[in-house]
Design a protein that fits this description.
Layout lengths: L6 H4 E5 L5 H14 L8 H5 L3 H10 L1 E2 L2 E8 L2 E10 L8 E9 L5 H17 L6 E6 L2 H9 L3 E12 L2 E11 L1
Parallel strand pairs: 5-6
Antiparallel strand pairs: 1-3, 2-3, 3-4, 4-5, 6-8, 7-8
Helix pairs in contact: 2-4, 5-6
């Protein structure tokens, strides 16, 4: 069993590849089922996608400025986060985080922290990117982003629709 003191060395953060397709699809569907308000896509939209669709997605998101990372514990995928850079034009200096999800566990916040920190670290190596944008409807994520230096600069009321309810979305920015 992992504790707060030894979890740092037990968490492996790495780029997801097509070898992770089954685990990624599984955790993605779990995330959409448990926290549907936190995502733009619906469970129904994602369930119909094939493993080939997910494999193609993982290949497309394997660039230095467009990537999907996984947090692993004991070889099991426990969390995900994505980053996408606006590649052209006047927004090239920005990118955004998407798809942050960590399975329910005692050390969930530590995983969330490590995933966000890894995105920041990778993006800092891309000297042309100056800002990381993130949004969330979840208070626990909002707090973790703020703990890592993101500034909440607004709230978009009723921004995400989930069946018959709406969630306000916190708008965050991290300047490199």
């Amino acid at each position: 069993m992992h504790t707060e003191s030894n979890i740092e060395s037990a968490i492996l953060i790495r780029q997801l590849t097509s070898d992770d397709v089954i685990s990624y699809k599984s955790i993605r569907l779990q995330a959409l089922g448990i926290k549907p308000e936190a995502f733009y896509r619906t469970l129904e939209e994602e369930e119909i996608k094939t493993l080939e669709d997910y494999s193609k997605l993982l290949k497309e998101r394997s660039k230095e400025n467009n990537f999907l990372l996984g947090a692993f514990l004991d070889g099991q995928l426990a969390g995900t986060i994505g980053f996408h850079n606006y590649e052209e034009g006047n927004l090239r200096h920005k990118g955004y985080i998407y798809g942050l999800y960590v399975i329910e566990m005692n050390l969930k916040m530590k995983f969330m922290q490590k995933l966000i920190e890894e995105v920041i670290s990778r993006v800092k190596q891309l000297r042309y990117i100056r800002q990381i944008i993130a949004t969330t409807v979840l208070i626990e994520e909002l707090q973790e982003y703020k703990n890592l230096g993101f500034i909440c600069h607004g709230i978009a009321p009723q921004s995400v629709a989930n069946q018959s309810s709406f969630s306000d979305e916190f708008l965050l920015n991290f300047v490199i």
